[in-house]
Amino acid sequence: VGMLAVAGVPAPDDLMRIAARTGDVRTSEAAKGLAYAFSRTARHRPEPGRSLHEALAQAWQRHGVGRDPELDAWMVRGLGVSAIDSVWTRAGASGIASESVRAMELARAARDLPLGEADGPAETHLAMIEALLNHPNPAVSVMLADGLAARFGADDMPEPVRLRLEARLADAQPDMPGAGTGQDGAALPSASDPELRLALVQALAAPLPDSVRRVWLQDRLPDLAASLDRNPYLASRMAPLWTQTETPTQTLDRFASWLEQGGVLAVQAVTGLPTVWAELPEGSEQQERIKAMVRRAIEQGERGPAFQAEPLLMDPSLFPLSDAFDRWF
């Protein structure tokens, strides 16, 4: 039944009847199959307040919220915010910390929690955010930080949420006194994970005004730059931050260096060029430099950079059709 629902075979009315019978599903595996079907596709994801949503929630309660992390994960994705409180009430911080599947879905959904109320976020939601930020698996914390960055990218972040992000970032600085320790003095996990540090910086920077963000990032990016030596894939996170703090000339100097190094860094260099190009004033002398870098990326013969150059090659203000034809054909 779950596979049929994923394939889009049952109509909504049929899914209503399926959900009404989920109480007869005795095994956890069967329940997970059905929960997966409702969570996997947006078309079948039940809307809060509808009878289908209520039927699925009741079936979950009968099987036991908090007993099966995988079932909880699919239910959180399928039922949305209403399921988050149920999992937290049953599993708590220790239950969330003990595994990753359920925690990843909680971190994914936490961005939709009602965190911006006039009287501040609920203490239970703040406790959940703190537990997810300090999860043993840094991917969980990164997921949450990315969600909060997207949520508050254009709005003021509630002060209690910001304070918890700042505290986690302080613990993620390995050279700071007390780094990697909680209030009880116990070691916190993943304290120096570079991707987590970058994700926290991005989340904290997102809601800042442009002028404040620039200075705030300039104070922090130099310490993070060394992470690229160990993990060049972090360039995808660092490139957008540098474009917010450097002049176009400085950013293009950096991208030119990455392009010559090839591989992942070359891909990220070309990926970042459209952002620089979009911010240049009309007639900028940097236009010819960007065109030369795109040509260099193609001439190097690496598929990744060449593929990422497509948006610029298709931009007639940068590469007129006649110029492109004469150059490449």
Describe the protein's architecture and organization:
By secondary structure, this protein is mainly α. The protein has 21 helices and no strands. It has helices at 2-6, 12-20, 28-40, 51-63, 69-79, 81-97, 101-109, 123-133, 138-151, 159-171, 194-205, 210-218, 221-225, 227-230, 235-245, 248-261, 263-279, 286-299, 303-308, 310-313, 321-328. Helix 2 runs parallel beside helix 4 (51-63), helix 4 (51-63) packs antiparallel against helix 5 (69-79) and helix 8 runs parallel beside helix 10 (159-171). It is globular. The relative contact order is 0.05.
Kindly list the characteristics that best describe this protein.
single chain; 329 residues; mainly alpha; 21 helices
Percentage of residues assigned to helices: 55-70%
Low-pLDDT parts are 175-191
Tell me the series of helices and strands, N- to C-terminal: HHHHHHHHHHHHHHHHHHHHH
| Total helical elements | 21
What Rg do the Cα atoms give? Answer: 24 Å
Question: What percentage of the residues does DSSP assign to strands (E)?
Answer: under 5%
Alpha carbon gap, first and last residue: 54 Å
Number of strands: 0
How would the global form be characterised? Answer: globular
Structural class: mainly alpha
Report the sheet with the most strands, covering strand number, pairing sense and barrel closure. none
Q: Mean of the pLDDT scores?
A: 80
Summarize the structure.
The protein contains 21 helices and no strands. The protein is an all-alpha fold and 329 residues long.
Chain-wise SSE layout:
Elements: H1 2-6, H2 12-20, H3 28-40, H4 51-63, H5 69-79, H6 81-97, H7 101-109, H8 123-133, H9 138-151, H10 159-171, H11 194-205, H12 210-218, H13 221-225, H14 227-230, H15 235-245, H16 248-261, H17 263-279, H18 286-299, H19 303-308, H20 310-313, H21 321-328
Helix pairs in contact: 2-4, 3-5, 4-5, 5-6, 5-7, 6-7, 6-8, 7-9, 8-10, 9-11, 10-11, 12-15, 15-17, 16-17, 16-18, 17-18
